[in-house]
Design brief:
179 residues; mainly alpha; 65% helix
């Protein structure tokens, strides 16, 4: 792809294939995997938010949250959410997780809390799980457990109403009698 050219389905397919192969890399092969992602990123137009996003994901997935954080921030600042709302939401989830891993859980909570009110999609449970981890890192385990139970409840074959009520009761004791 030439500089300035649009991202096309072929590029997206090759990125997906690279990620599909991730589990085949040994832990000590992480630099080789990141090189594959870097080569794909090099095909992007300058200033594309997809580049720092993919690189952040590669660093994050190979155990380097500290290197991923500035890249996620760059991707979001470059408008990743405008290019792909889905990838923008993924970046916020993954950035929050990386912030937690680097001792900045409070920032992760601030970043993810608005996602609770965002348009619903398949990432809703990941938002709640990651936010729960950030809250737990801050000693706010009841709030975190409430989020996780609330996310789990709709997936249960029975007890959806009870679990949803228990989840609410964890953060609002006035609701405890309804559980």
């Amino acid at each position: 792809m030439c500089e300035g050219g649009p991202v096309n389905q072929d590029w997206e397919d090759r990125v997906s294939a690279a990620w599909a192969s991730f589990e085949t890399y040994a832990e000590d092969d992480a630099p080789r995997f990141r090189a594959v992602i870097d080569a794909l990123v090099a095909e992007l137009p300058k200033g594309s938010p997809l580049g720092p996003f993919e690189r952040a994901c590669a660093w994050d997935s190979t155990g380097h949250s500290d290197k991923a954080v500035p890249l996620y921030r760059e991707a979001l600042a470059l408008g990743l959410g405008d290019v792909s709302g889905y990838k923008g939401r993924r970046a916020r989830i993954q950035l929050s997780s990386s912030l937690r891993n680097t001792g900045q859980a409070e920032e992760g909570v601030k970043l993810l809390t608005p996602e609770l009110d965002a348009r619903s999609d398949e990432l809703d449970d990941a938002v709640r799980a990651t936010l729960a981890l950030c809250l737990s890192s801050l000693g706010r385990d009841r709030e975190g457990l409430s989020l996780v139970l609330g996310a789990l409840a709709p997936h249960l074959p029975r007890y959806q109403r009870s679990m949803a009520n228990y989840a609410r009761a964890l953060v609002d004791p006035a609701d405890e009698s309804d559980a």
